[in-house]
Every structure is written in C-alpha cells, then in structure tokens.
Automatic annotation (TrEMBL):
The gene is LOC104605409. Belongs to the TRAFAC class dynamin-like GTPase superfamily. Dynamin/Fzo/YdjA family. The lineage of its organism: Eukaryota, Viridiplantae, Streptophyta, Embryophyta, Tracheophyta. Residues 537-563 have a biased composition (Polar residues). This is Dynamin-related protein 3A-like isoform X3. Residues 47-321 form the Dynamin-type G domain. Residues 567-585 have a biased composition (Low complexity). Residues 535-588 are annotated as: Disordered. Keywords: GTP-binding, Nucleotide-binding. SMART domains: DYNc, GED. One of its GO terms (cellular component) is cytoplasm. CDD domains: DLP_1. GO terms for molecular function: GTP binding; GTPase activity.
C-alpha cells in the first residue's frame, strides 16, 4: 500500500500552529476540568449541565468505530451484541509535540483510577470491560453510571464526547423486558439539554429516513440547531446508490450538517487492520469516488474531528456566561446551607457564647415580630402582633357586638321570671329580681368568648415562637426541643393568671348589678319607651284593668297596679237583697239541703304560663328587655376593653419582659452546654458534604474566571461566522440553500468575505 500517512497529522499540525492553537485549546479543556471537578460528588450535587457532545445511535451503527477513529487507537470493547453498556465520557486532550522528549507518548487515565496512566490501549479496553461488569454485571446488563476516560495525545484535537449505549429493541441476557425504553430514557436525559451537541450516527446500509438516532435527535432538538449527522459505512451501500442528498441535508435538514465516514469491517479488525490503514483507505475511497469526491469537506474522520472541535468550542463559549451564573447561584445556595450547619464547637466558653447568642437572638426576633419590626416582614399576609390585633378587634370585639342580649330566652321566659319574683302576691310594680336574674345569665355568657380569645392569642404566640427559631438552632435538636418545652411552659404559666383575671372581671360584673351607672336606662324611661312602643304597635295606650274579672277567669293570671287591690268586689254584693243570701262569715245553720261538694283540680307538677299575655304583661316584658339591652351594652364594652388588656398584661407583655431571663435560668447552665449543643451524626455528614460542595463550586468558578478575560477578548473574532440563531459556527457544507453551489466550487475555493456576508443575509431571510 506504500507509505502510510496519518490523516490526523494535518489536523495536529494545525492545532500545534501558534496562530491557530486557540481553536478549542482553552475552553474545551476547561469544561473537561469542570467535569472532573464535579464527578466525585456524583448524585449528591445539584445537577449542572456542562457542554458536551453525546454520541447516539443504534447497535451496530458504527459508533465505536467512529470514536476509535477519532482517537486513532483501538480501545473500546467489541462484540456482536451490545458493547457500550455504561455511558463513557471520553475526553480527548490535545498535547503539543515536544521534540526529543518522551511526552509524545499517548496515554489514557480513568477518573476512578486517578494517577494511573495506561500506555497500553488494550489495557484500557480491558479496564472499560471490567468497570462495566462491576456495575452492570457480566450478562449484557445496562447501567446509567458513567465511566470517565481521558486520552492525552498529540494526535487528537480537544473534544469531549459521551458514548451512550446503542438503542436496541430485543432484550438479551439479563436485560429487562423494557430495555428499549430504558436506554431511550437514558439517552434523552443527556440530549434534551440545550448545552448538549448531538452526534447522531446512522449506518448508510439501512434506511436513513427512519434512523433511530435521527428520530431521537429530532425529538430532543426539533429545530436541528445542535445536531450533527454522521453517516457511516458509506463504502458498503448498494451499488448504484449514494448518500449525497443526505450529506447535503436535502432529506432531513440539520443546521450543523452531515459528515460521511467509512468504518472498518469486522473482518478488517480480525485481520489487525490498524486505524491508520483504515483512515488511509477512507481517504482514498472518498478521493476516488465520483460522487463523494466533490464533497470532500463533508467526508472523512479528519473532517468530523475538526468540525466537532470547532462546534464544541464555539458552543462552550456561547454557554459559558450562563454556566458561570448558574455556578454562582449554586454557590450562594450552598453558602446559606453551610451557615445552617455552623462550625464545630469544643470549649465551654465557646459553647456558652453560642448558646447565649442563640437564646438572645430568639427572644429579640420574638419581640420584633410582636412589635412589627421583623426584618422578614411579610407583604402577603398578616403575621406576628398584627394577627393578635386582628383577634382582638375583628374576632373578639366584633363577635360580642353581634350577640343579642335577649338571645336565649323568650317573652314567656321573661313573664315567668316576673311571676316567680312576685311570690304569692301581686306586685304593684315590675320587680328588680327578674331583671337581675336574666342579666346575670347574659353576663355569664361573656366568659367563654373571652377565654377563647385568650386561647387564640396563646396559639399565635406558639406559632410565632416556632417561626422565630434562629437558623443556628436547626442543627441543635436537643436545644430546639428544650426551647419549645420552656416556651410552652412559660406561656402556659402566663395563661393561668390571665384566665383568673378574665374570670374575675366577669364575676365582678355578675356580683354587683350597678343600676346607678350613668349610662344605664332608668326604670321610668324604660316604662315610657315601652308604652310608646305598645302605642305604636297597637294604636292605643295600655290601660289599667279596673273591670270586673270574669267569673270563669284564669286563676293563674296576675293583675297589676292598683286594680289588684280591689279586683272582684262586685261579685260579692247581692243584687236583690234575697233573704237566702248570707254574708261570707255568717254560719249557715238553717240550710238543710247542701249542694254537692266542688272538687278543685290539683296543680300540675310542672306549671307553666300560657303564651297569651295581657297588655300589662306585654308592657312589663318590653321594660325588662329595654333594661337588659341597656345594661348588657355597658358590661359588653367593659369586657371588650378589659379582656385584651388582661391578655396583653399577663401573657403577651409578660412574655416579652421575662422570656430571656427564663431561658437563661432554665437552659444557660454550664452542665447543659454540651447537651444543648449536641449535633446529630447526619448533620455532621451533611456539613462535611456541603463544605465539599462549596470547595468544588469555588474551584469551578475560579476555573472559569481564569479564562473569562480570554473568552471576552476573543468573542469578537470571527463574529461573522457565527449563526445568530443558535450561537454555533457556520460550517461549510451545512444543509442550507447557501451551500447548493457546484461540487467544484465547494472543493476548489473558500467563499470571499462579500459573498459570505450575502450568504448570511440570504440565510437570515430564509
């Protein structure tokens, strides 16, 4: 075959040229470093999506051959079934050549075996196989846990790729029945992110229009703005067919275009055909092919390597500002979390200072919340002292105002009380006893809502105490429980005197009915108002009953006023002076035949008045109601005023004044310091993990800052070659109408600056 020439030598010389070494020489290694920084934390770290190239394709699509060709060495497991069973993060690191040194040797290094370099690429293959089996088993199992491999060589360009398991439809070995769905889910978890460039590998000897890789890429990247198509096995297509239309993007357009490659067959591998020989064969195949000869910039592994390098480099530059902002945001969150865990405390003096500081801050936060001076004041809902004020004014006071003083008894109940108060005789005037009995009953009803108001305030104080727990207290569960216990007992102790005071206030009002109160309605005024009410409702003034009561009148009825003294006298006066009539006290000795004895009905065990009232009784009922309303209104206002005062004095303000001293008395003891500040084991673990996260983030931010100025200074270079829609570079040969020139034009020269600008305008218009 003659002298074998490595097609990568040209690419390597370009990378080694100081004028062009900036391509991918700074930002891609930075991302590689960031991946290495974040990798040890695994799933314990918040997900940061770094820029990378994900290689997807079905089984036997030629993914492994493409990757080995990019590296230039055989290092991946081979077989007839699924070979890639764990995601392989492959970092290709270009190392400049140094003459007269041993640094030109290529080597690989696994993240799980740091500081161990593999110079034998067969050993790299065996380690990949062994590490895969350690996690996924030996019988075709699949795992989503990554293997990270760095290959350093002067023969590669800076590229980072993720080789994902090939899509399959039929499970084999220990694979679950839903292996296809699992692999597709794994692939989608990588390619769905905007930071990921998709390398969709499809074999040319199958129906490219139904390629699994292109379908998956379209699902994750509908616009095709970050997908590169790779068509493999172009040399074994059916005779008379070619992939020209696919390479030109006329079938499935992709903004980043397609690259066609030729793979080694299994027979070539069995015959130990080297990668260099395969690349030379590929170069000769495309050079001599009548169709692909004119598409030389879209064919071959070297073209793919250069394209990946440029696209990934520009893609990284585009997402670096957003990545830096995301890292800074994560750092702020981690710093806040670190503060919640605090530092290790050893000496008694430090423990005492920390404990006193926590208790003092707790009491200060509690007082500020009560007084409305909290720094974390809400603007969406009432909190702290405002809620207590709402309880007093909008719940307690308003509820008492809505109570009817005569609620709970009827007119019949009032009349019964009046009758019972007169005893065995009629009263000339409305007695005081019914009024006092009824008003005491209504005053007693004020006790329950007053105690409910106290309970509401107590519950609000409990809520406030929990809301005021300092951040440092979260890491000391014993102290937190102790503070809750002391606070609960302290508030309960404050509730008791408040309860007694409220009960005393109500009892005082019940014990002495002060009818001399200046705001109390007088009896004469009440009678006047009652008579006016009757007159307005019945059209006539109520009059005293001076008529002769009917002989069959209700014996339980009661007459009022002066008439009761003379009622029924006419019934005992003889109308005709009959000799047969006798005086009431005269003995009836001459009566021979006495009539039958009159039998009286026995009074019932439960004696109640009928619901029919005389005008006088209605007048009395109205008078009692007016007096009840007048006096109840006086007592209600007193209760509305005194109950909140009692609660504030005995509970709320007492808590503000004495809470800190109570905490110091109960908890600030030297023999309790260690117990109060005991940290749980899981908190220690979280503190250690969070500090590691902070160090990782700090290292990552510093890594980005090292090249921040460089990225800024280079951001203006080749700005005309950037696609404004995607932030990715425009590559010659992409699927766009501007590349529909003849094959000779594509291969013979590069468009001038003016034509390139016109192409950009045309591209933007389309």
């Amino acid at each position: 075959m003659g002298e074998q020439v490595n097609p990568f030598d040209e690419a390597s010389s370009v990378a080694d040229n100081p004028k062009t070494a900036s391509i991918g020489s700074s930002v891609i290694p930075i991302v590689n470093r960031l991946q290495d920084i974040f990798a040890p934390l695994g799933g314990s770290f918040p997900k940061i999506n770094l820029p990378q190239v994900a290689v997807i394709g079905s089984q036997s699509s030629g993914k492994s051959s493409v990757l080995e060709a990019l590296v230039g060495r055989d290092f991946l497991p081979r077989g007839s079934d699924i070979c890639t069973r764990r995601p392989l993060v492959l970092q290709l690191e270009h190392r400049p050549r140094r003459p007269n040194t041993d640094d030109d040797r290529e080597w690989g290094e696994f993240l799980h075996l740091p500081e161990k370099r593999f110079y034998d690429f067969s050993a790299i293959r065996r380690e990949i196989q062994a590490e895969t089996e350690r996690e996924a088993g030996t019988n075709k199992g699949v795992s989503d846990k990554q293997i990270r491999l760095k290959i350093s060589s002067p023969n590669v360009l800076n590229i980072t790729l993720v080789d994902l398991p090939g899509m399959t439809k039929v499970p084999v070995g220990d694979q679950p029945s839903d292996i296809e769905a699992r692999i597709r889910t794994m692939i989608m978890s990588y390619i769905k992110h905007e930071t990921c460039v998709i390398l969709a590998v499809s074999p040319a000897n199958s129906d490219l229009a139904t390629s699994d890789a292109l379908q998956m890429a379209r699902a994750a990247d509908p616009a095709g703005s970050r997908t590169i198509g790779v068509i493999t096995k172009l040399d074994i297509m059916d005779r008379g067919t070619d992939a020209r239309n696919f390479l030109l993007g006329r079938v499935i357009p992709l903004r980043l275009g397609y690259i066609g490659v030729v793979n080694r067959s299994q027979e070539d591998i069995n015959q130990d055909w080297s990668i260099v020989e395969a690349l030379n064969y590929e170069e000769n195949f495309f050079h001599n092919h009548p169709v692909y000869h004119g598409l030389s910039d879209q064919c071959g592994i070297p073209q793919l390597a250069n394209k990946l390098n440029k696209i990934l480099e520009q893609h990284i530059r585009t997402v670096l500002p957003r990545l830096k902002a995301e890292l800074n945001s994560q750092m702020v969150a981690v710093v806040k979390e670190i503060r919640t865990y605090g530092e290790d405390i050893e000496s008694k003096a430090e423990q005492g200072a920390v404990l006193l500081n926590i208790l003092t801050r707790f009491c200060k936060a509690f007082s500020h919340m009560l007084d409305g001076r909290s720094r974390e004041m809400s603007t969406t809902e009432l909190s702290g002292g405002a809620r207590i004020h709402y309880i007093f004014e909008s719940i307690f006071v308003k509820s008492l105002e809505e109570v009817d003083p005569c609620d709970g008894f009827t007119d019949k109940d009032i009349q019964t009380a009046i009758e019972n108060a007169t005893g065995p005789k009629d009263a000339l005037f409305v007695p005081d006893e019914p009024f006092e009995v009824l008003i005491r009953r209504q005053i007693a009803r004020l006790l329950d809502p007053s105690l409910q108001c106290l309970r509401f305030v107590y519950e609000e104080l409990i809520k406030m105490s929990r809301a005021c727990e300092a951040t440092e207290m979260q890491r000391f569960p014993v102290l937190r429980r102790s503070v809750d216990e002391v606070m609960g007992k302290f508030l309960c102790d404050g509730v008791k005197p408040a309860e007694r005071m409220i009960a005393n206030i109500v009892e005082m009002e019940m014990d002495y009915i002060n009818t001399s109160h200046p705001n109390f309605l007088s009896g004469s005024k009440a009678v006047e108002l009652a008579m006016q009410h009757l007159k307005s409702t019945k059209g006539s003034r109520p009059q005293l009953n001076n008529d002769k009561p009917p002989s069959s009148g209700n014996s339980t009825g009661r007459t009022s006023g002066i008439s009761s003294l003379f009622g029924g006298s006419e019934s005992r006066i003889s109308s005709g002076g009959s000799s047969s009539s006798k005086s009431f006290g005269e003995p009836m000795h001459d009566v021979v035949h006495l009539p039958t004895t009159v039998q009286l009905r026995e009074p019932p065990a439960l004696l109640r008045l009928s619901g029919v009232h005389t005008e006088q009784q209605e007048l009395e009922i109205i008078v009692i109601k007016l007096l009840l309303r007048s006096y109840y209104d006086i007592v209600r206002k007193k209760i509305q005023d005194f109950v909140p005062k009692a609660i504030m004095h005995f509970l709320v303000n007492h808590t503000k004044r004495n809470l800190l001293s109570t905490f110091i008395q109960k908890l600030y003891r030297e023999n309790l310091f260690e117990e109060m500040l005991h940290v749980q084991d899981d908190t220690v673990v979280k503190r250690k993990r969070t500090r590691e996260m902070f160090q990782v983030l700090q290292q990552a931010v510093q890594t980005l800052e090292e090249v921040d100025s460089e990225v800024t200074s280079r951001s203006s270079i080749s700005s005309s070659s950037i696609d404004t829609a995607t932030g990715l570079p425009k590559i010659q040969g992409l699927s766009s109408p501007i590349y529909t020139t003849s094959n000779s034009d594509i291969s013979s020269h590069t468009p001038s600056l003016n034509s390139f600008k016109s192409h950009r305008l045309l591209h933007s218009w389309e």
